[in-house]
Amino acid sequence: MIDRVEATLGPIDVLVNSAGAARRTPPAELDPAAWRAAMEAKYFSYVFPADAVVKRMAARGAGVIVNVIGAGGKVASPSHLPGGAANAALMLVTAGLAHAWAGHGVRVNAVNPGLTLTGRLQEGLRADARMQGISPEAALDRARERLPLGRMAEPEEIAHAVLFLASAKASYVTGAILSMDGAVNPIVV
User: Which domains does the chain have, with CATH numbers?
Assistant: First the structure.
């Protein structure tokens, strides 16, 4: 795929990995297939393209990778254990790749969004609702109540942060995991 893209469009200067594919599953419903599916959907779908592209970027002496990694990698959620584990692994990979390739002109960062108004949010709310024995609407209300900003993120807000990290304005930023959870988890990282 990378060969085809570069043959058609030229070298990849910026790679943005953004896949919200790890399914949310209540703990009682987990099985080995769910754990494996989360790693295939989230972890490997980022690592394989990043591994191939970072080496090409390094050979050219420039490039940027931005990974969009859910906040579930920092704080364990019972309904998102496999996906959260994949997210945690991706945060480590982001920091590790940044360190390994910085001397070759490649920057690697991540945006770490919390609740964002997407279709994926609805799937998570349904899993949370099943686990808590409430309606998805009640799960949405509970989620909103936990947000210090009083609202969920809009997808465009996440995109703006990705754009900043991919731009020359962030030329000295690498290995960073930018938290965008609306202060739900007031932690220092």
Answer: 2-180 (3.40.50.720)
